[in-house]
Batch of 4 targets.
Target 1
Amino acid sequence: METQKPAAPLWQRSAVELAAAIRTGDVSSVEVVRSCLGRIEETNPRLNALVDLRPDEALADARRADAAVAAGERLGPLHGVPVSTKINTDQRGHVTSNGVAALAGPPAKEDAACVAALRTAGAVLLGRSNSPAFSYRWFSTNDLHGRTLNPWDADRTPGGSSGGASSSLAAGMTPLAQGNDIGGSIRYPAACCGVVGVRPTVGRVSGWMPPVHIETPDGPARLDFPLTAQACAVEGPLARTVADARLALDVMTSPDLRDPFGIPVAPGRPAGGAKPRVGLVRDIGTVRNHSAVDAALDAAATRLSAAGYEVEEFEAASVLAEAARLWSLLIYEDFRAVVPLVEQVGDEGIRTSLRYSFAAAADVWGERPTLDAYIQGWARRGSLIGRLQELLGTDRVLLTPIAAELPFEQDADLKGAERASEMLAAMWPMAAVPILGFPAVSVPAVHADGLPVGVQLIAGRFAEELALDAAQVVEDGAPRLAPSL
């Protein structure tokens, strides 16, 4: 007689599976939340990924979700499914600290639009994920909440700035997480921890937030979000599977006319037809890939070819190289205005990292770029967007590395200007995409040296589905491994 395999614990199941099981009454939201809370209790003391937990609040929401099921009410696509939110994003009743004690003021009165969309879809908001101070490092440590560890290797970064989100997902604390991305802050943490991250097209998921009012040693101050934050930053999902990420993206898509770059309607799926072509961009000629990075690209290309995609080396490197170079001009020059505030209220880590980051950018643009260079940079950005969309058309996706290196050693950005320059060069795939505003998906491809190694798939504007389809193929052939915790 064949022995039946025991069912996986609820915390191990995907968001798609959990949503279906809760909807049919096979499991309750309370059972799922309790399972996740148990996993959090087991793993979070070591990883420090979730930093604001309110079990009673989450369980109360889960009970309401179960009551809605019992009453036959209309249910959202994530009804009863736990999701974490990030400490730099407003969640009603919770502090939006951004890892900075001076920002840890009164609780937010309203949800950010992306959080409201998750709540409307029925998600149970379970925990706030850690980030670096000001969400401005490729690491996730701050003096307010401490250091988040990578569950695969504590000596490597879990990524930043959504490192708490990626670490918690890899450990099984929740099936979904909300994050944001202006320089790889969704895609890089996802790759570091072996999960999936989606950076949507700018405007698809509302990123609107009101100005921040804080108390500084010099008195009250208002912080309006700079132009690059408005034009290049996005909100998006992290998940353990491509299917879960696709579901979360659909839920988070939130037309919002308060967002200066928002679109009034949700984009539709591209019309069916032949599989798109895949353009492989292995590097931009400025930095050599780690051998495991090339192995991940080769594995992804092989899987896509076997699935019927036409894969070819593609001449988009010059566009991506120029976009990555512009990132170190436009992002840093916008952030320069925030430096005095960082010096006043930021921790030593962000102050040191920022100093070396500006030194790395100075190697490219000089010590103090001129206003004319900044203006021309914005003008050039528009031309590059048009050029890349021409290259992609409606039938191509790009396959690139996540970074030229494996996940950085913890606090690598504090080791000096030379290491900061190496990191900036290695992160060209993360920097190029935000400047152009295109969608991209980070998906695990192989494992090497005990670490997950991912690849990035870039699609044309509002063609997230093409990138997700290709990412699904990469995921289908990847080894299903989990960190030992």
Target 2
Amino acid sequence: MNPYMTTAQETAETGSLQVDVVSSENNYPIQDAEISITYTGDPNSIIEKVTTDSSGQSANVKLAAPPVGLSLSPGLVQPYSEYTLYITAQGFEPVAIDGTQILAETEAIQPVKMTPIQDAITPDTPITIGEHTLYGDYPPKIAEAEVKPIAETGEIVLSRVVVPQTIIVHDGVPTDPTATNYYVPYGDYIKNVASSEIYATWPRETIIANVLAIMSFTLNRVYTEWYRNQGYDFTITSSTAFDHKWIYGRNIYESISQVVDEIFNSYLSRPGIKQPILTQYCDGNRVTCPRWMSQWGSNTLGEQGYTAIDILRYYYGSNMYINTAEQVSGVPSSYPGYELSVGASGDKVRQVQEQLDTIAGVYTRIPRITADGVYGENTAEAVRQFQSIFNLPVTGVIDFATWYKISNIYVGITRIAEYS
């Protein structure tokens, strides 16, 4: 029996869960997948059964969660409830996920990839989501210099800061040869880490500050090719002693996902230093770290009205700045630098119409459109449906976040840039 089940059942507070199910073969949504939700540790306690729609998504399910206040300050009581999901779909191997984490007053999104039966060599073992880093017992970060002396060592590094298409995550410490390497889209990696290391109930500016620190750290590993220059074949590890906690198969949160989508090409800089800063941090409760960001402290500052950059400068100093990468890899075309809306026209409109119409062939809730280069009401409606499916603010306007989300989904279902 889950020791937190009674607490979750008794509280009047709830969070919500949406399950997104796609095929591992082509990233297409899987319709009519059946999802059973139980309390983790009590497989007979079926709370809800839901079915995915044409977009491979379940309806939002309200689930009991501990009081929201438990996630707003350090404490000994687990601030989230845990649920087990069992997913079945015709023609696919079933998937079991233990430990989906639900916070009060937040929307959790559980991504699921299902393997076609004919492609499955051995039955998949259940996915187990480990404890959140602010609640579980994880090793603290081993301190490193925030800027790598690449000029002195003669290492070959990238000539400019580029957002990679894929992060190769070594799921263990660097020296463990048995740990699996996972190929993870960059944005998905950042969302997973942020959902594993901070609480989605925190103020938006606090979330932005922490996401910026996570992205800058990650892009430093990419820019300096830190592990490859030591003879390893991965970008980063899932060990908190060396990098950040990434948990295979874990759920993410809508509030964190939207922040990442809005700023995913950003990182942190100091004057005169080209590489992204290796922004290290600690929880600030069990572990203290002078000159690094305190996660719990950043929450307190956010509650006091500090902006993201104010929070970052409070910890890292007044000469810390937000920068943007010069290039985003793996997308057909970069954002034009301005929003596209009804009345716009030209090649950028035509290009995004072509991508949207291709996506609409798979996500049938999106109306088909003609790529005529004119942003009319039909295009705006297609954009609204796309935004609704992919957890973006529904505006009918193509902003930075929507442009790159369209690009990423298009690439995912056409596989035009796999591993490029």
Target 3
Amino acid sequence: MGYNIVVAGATGDVGREMLNILAEREFPVDQIAALASRRSIGTEVGFGDKTLKCRDIDGFDFAGWDIALFATDAETARAHAPAAARAGCFVIDGSGVWSTDPDVPLIVPEVNAAAIENAAKKHIIAGPLGAVSQLVVALKPLHDRARIRRVVLSTYQSVSDAGTKAMDELWNQTKGLYVPGQEVEPKEFPRQIAFNVIPQIGDFMEDGTTREEWQIVAETKKILDPKIRLAVTCVRVPVFVGQAESLNVEFQDFLDEDEARDILREAPGLLVIDKHEDGGYITPIESVGEFATFVSRIRQDSTVENGLNLWCVSDNLRKGAALNMVQIAELLGNRVLGKG
């Protein structure tokens, strides 16, 4: 017995990836509906060996549907997710609208699966930012062993994290730099992204942090431990898919790099690629299409008493977004709905 599934935002990069992953993982589906904005009605998207035609999200009746996976912007999520929840459909939302709501569980299944028990409060479950999904998967097993006090995090986030128009801007700017008179001015980003890095993701807040940086801190504390202190700098890089993070982690107890490496090798959702030689690490391009979060460059940090440095990489469209939401749906089926 399967589920009646809705994928909202089915024409976007994350929505299409969710449909692919639902099929790849053989999620039990009785019926599936692909929803999009009015301008995309009739657009065809793939689901395994089937082709779905997108339906209009405006006016869609969510009654009788079990799970709705929302890969939409915040405005669309605010407009339609509550209606779906009121109709009895469990919403798994990736927009960030409800990620800090105390009545909405924020879940990365490898880290805090038990939080799914609170899903019935609002019938809404939040998925975190892609940067947080890979971060907490890497930190959780180390925190369990040595208790994390502080994390200094720098993210290197790809343009696909900002959507299709952002990817087009990188492509067109890159081409334009080689063709005189065809230069492309920034529209999706505050500065040129081609052959550049931009130390801003999200609008600036009063204290000088950006919204993305603030949200990473808030979501990590909610998922992992509110006592952990975090300092975050988010950087947009000229990469299409795949994102990386540099972590400096300070622990309460001493943790040797060899033990940390062994712990991470045994942890769910992680792959350790860490050789002290040229190329003995993972870069974003190698993570594309993979489910795992990769950890490399594990080494002691001599500047603090109990510190480690790590390099963490994942496919932001897969583990960062689509896979995590499908994993939440699997968890929901197994622990709440009872059909999985």
Target 4
Amino acid sequence: MFKAVIDNLNGTLWDISELCSEVTWKTSRIGKPSVMDVTFIEDALYQSKDFTYHNGNVIRVEVDGQGFFWGRVFVNESGKDEPVKLRAYDQLRYLNEADTYVRKNVRADEVIRDQCAPANLTVGTLANTQFVIPKVMEDGQKRMDICCKALDSTLLATGRLFVLYDDYGSIVLRDVNDMVIDLILGDESLVFNYRIKRSIDDDTYNRVKLVQDNKNTGRRDVYIAEDSVNIAKWGRLQYYQKVDDKLNAAQINGIKDRFLELKNREKETFTLDALGFVGMRAGIKVQVTIEKLGISQYYLVEECTHRLAGEDHTMKLELKVYG
């Protein structure tokens, strides 16, 4: 059972649970706020003439007594003899504003806190990312992009993957290894359909070339890592980047080797259709076991879309290989 409540921010709460024909909630692992779409029949509400809804209103949804979504309405749509459609986003939506940010020797979690503060966002627990980024200098960039770049730098330097999300009204940052869910998805466990795609067309690299300006010699130092076996198999797929001049050779070598380890593989994407599970969201690691495909391993949830309609609760998961 789900409960959906609209808060007009004037002391009035409207329970629209019984009016909703469909509620969908989509979470993405990287760089996006979660989005809630609610469809309901307005005329059925208590015969009350006072019921209103506006952009900026808070909408809260609970499922089986657990906090599911907390956010604000950004789009409302209605028409004659048509249901009302609301679209709401969580707090991360406010990180879409652009600004300038310059700071030296800063961790990714500190960057995130610095971006949330000016937007007056509620921040919960942010995991200590430990790695100190020598310099962050961004001009006219979205706050979300600034946060994501800091997390990318941390991943390349340490191999640690973190997930930034809004947990029912509090922005949190967690290590993906702390987001393993006690659930097995498969032929006999929730799943009723699946599709699989393998590709080297996007985000796959078998050669990494990093360059750094050398102020002493006036030339560029070049650092290369490659997999000759996969180059022969796929052709050369090179990633190129100029790195910060404050990084030393050991740090750059670590980054190039780690990047090759992460990207020198086919990009495998699973899409699963399954019965809904309240605790599922993007960023979670989940065990998938499908005997027909010979699969039994952990996958990382890239996107998760829940659909609630009456008593039905289903979810669509987009997964990628992790570890």
